[in-house]
Write a structure and sequence with these properties.
By secondary structure, the protein is of the alpha+beta class. The chain has 5 helices and 9 strands; from the N terminus they run ααβββββααββαββ. Helix 3 crosses helix 4. It binds a DNA duplex through strand 3, strand 4 and helix 4.
Amino acid sequence: MEAMPTAIALELQRPPDLAARALLGALLVRKGVALRITEVEAYGGPADSASHARHGRTPRNAPMWGPPGRAYLYFCYGMHWMLNVVTGPEGEATAVLIRGAEVASGLDDVLLRRKAARATPGLCAGPGKVAQALGLDRSFDGHDLLAPGGLELRPGAPPETILAGPRLGIGFATPEDQARPWRFAAGDSRAVLQRKALHLF
DNA sequence: CGCCGGATTTAA
DNA sequence: TAAATCCGGCGA
């Protein structure tokens, strides 16, 4: 029989900024590795000049137009994979970029993938680092994060406080979209980039 | 078909 | 502060 929609699945149907905040504290699980999400950014559909959806549907961003709960992975700067969680109703092309995380379990595997000797606060602080820590690549593009197997999104403890501020690395967007405070971070985490650019939500 | 530049990371 | 590194999207 059909499983009841999980709380997290319901949250992902909401507008991207709300879905983004709901993802803080949630877990990304792959095999023995679990990462607690500590930093995210919301991206709107075609109307958001910072979004990959701004040029409409293309082969690369196709997963963004699909149902919520899927992964959208893209390759950036010739070397990094970025993990997004598709949100909103199907066809809206909204998504949340996972920008930072803490290792909840599987530290040894993460250290190997990140080529790090020991755990530091910055180990998974940054979108490229998150994908690398989970060993993600093109093969995970379009993956259903709400289904068992492979890479899964699971409920976690939400942060006590949430920080908010402008999104990073979107200098190409309109001033209005650059100013939109759609970056969110867990107030209780050290794995957050540029904390001073954030304020209490 | 060629060019431009990017939702970045790292080391110097 | 800059190099690494490559592919998508756009204009010609």
